[in-house]
Fold Replication initiator protein RepSA.
Amino acid sequence: MTHTATAAGLDPATLADMLRVAGSTGFRRWEDQIRRTGGCSDPIHITGWTLTKDKTTGEALHRYSTSDEPGGRLRIACGNRRASRCPSCAWTYAGDTYHLIRAGLAGDDRRDIPATVREHPRVFVTLTAPSFGPVHNRPASGRCRCGSNHHADDPALGTALDPARYDYAGAVLFNNHAGQLWARFANRLRREIALRAGLTRRELADSCRVSFGKVAEFQKRGAIHFHAVIRLDGPAGPSTPPPHWASTHLLTEAVRAAVAHTYTTLAIPAAGDQPTRTLRWGSQLDIRPIKAFGDGSDITEQAVASYVAKYATKAAENTGTLDRPIGNREALVLLDVPDHTARLIEACLDLDALYPDRRLAAWSHMLGFRGHFSTKSRQYSTTLGALRQTRADYRAAQEQHAFDAEPDTVLVLASWQYAGHGHSPGESVLAATIARGIQLNRQTAREALRDQLAREGDAA
């Protein structure tokens, strides 16, 4: 909910509600709940109870009920990955993604990923969309085709020079099929690697595995592109060394060949007033070797993991679109969506009847894109679910320690019900303050870790 700001910074109603919350008898417990959610901006409210009993004696070891909580509710984190919806939960998601990507680059003994994975061939690849028409940009020469030198925050960047001739339909159809284009690329990449190794596809599977972790990002023009870590392993994954013929050079050449191959194109049949289209990757292809530590020439493990984690929490908001489904065409005017983005959304709505199986209207707020923003192959590294389970196990161990009992000797009975979500206006202000403090502490800890890794790199 948006609240009107005054010269003092808060409108009177929000300020009054904030004082009410801060002055309530249960404020300290409410504050503790919010800290435990990481400062979540839209916490889930639940009511209920738990009872922990000794399995043998039936003795009650621990009782908990939300009836003693502020408002009779327990608040838990919403877990939304979008930074535009909940910055604090997105921060946690970004941290998990960072660990997932870096574990596949540097290893993680706790996840059975050996440090020797650093010796495997790996590259950081960026696959882009083709051109759908000239847009305002900042070329190396500094001067855009329109004759202006755009500053970095100019809202005109990425918008069409001539909207009447820009292929908005082609742009959203590319976004909509981007996941299939990636699947075709991944399949062809394995074939190209096999060709360069003088093997069949079956023989390649017996000696080498291709692993990847990727993230999607929207360019300012509203076109999706992918950043991917691609790694060559032995047949059993990161725990086995790649074959002798596997090299970064071979992998780089295979990526180039796969992107250019006709197999990685996708034919879209004509429908209504739309012509037959052939979707393919753009000509801008970036392939960079990944080094364990920086030497000034190649991208490092730290930089790659940070980059992927940054975009894992974003969607299409940087293009001016919304972070939730759009109800109807009229909402574009009421929500003040920029013209270029509105035209992309309208293209989705117009094409929905022509390509009903693509659900373009349902994904119009994503400019047609309907895939996952971050994905990985099975053997690349750990999983987000495993990382979340680690946190859950840690919290459970803390609770078990509180009443000094072994996990297999207790029985936990529980009953929970959903009771709403979110904050009141005053609670939102206070929760945001808590979230900023938590984020500052986390950032300080991460910077200390980064400095430590840099020192280790210098020592190496």
Summary: Residues 12-81+385-459 form one domain.
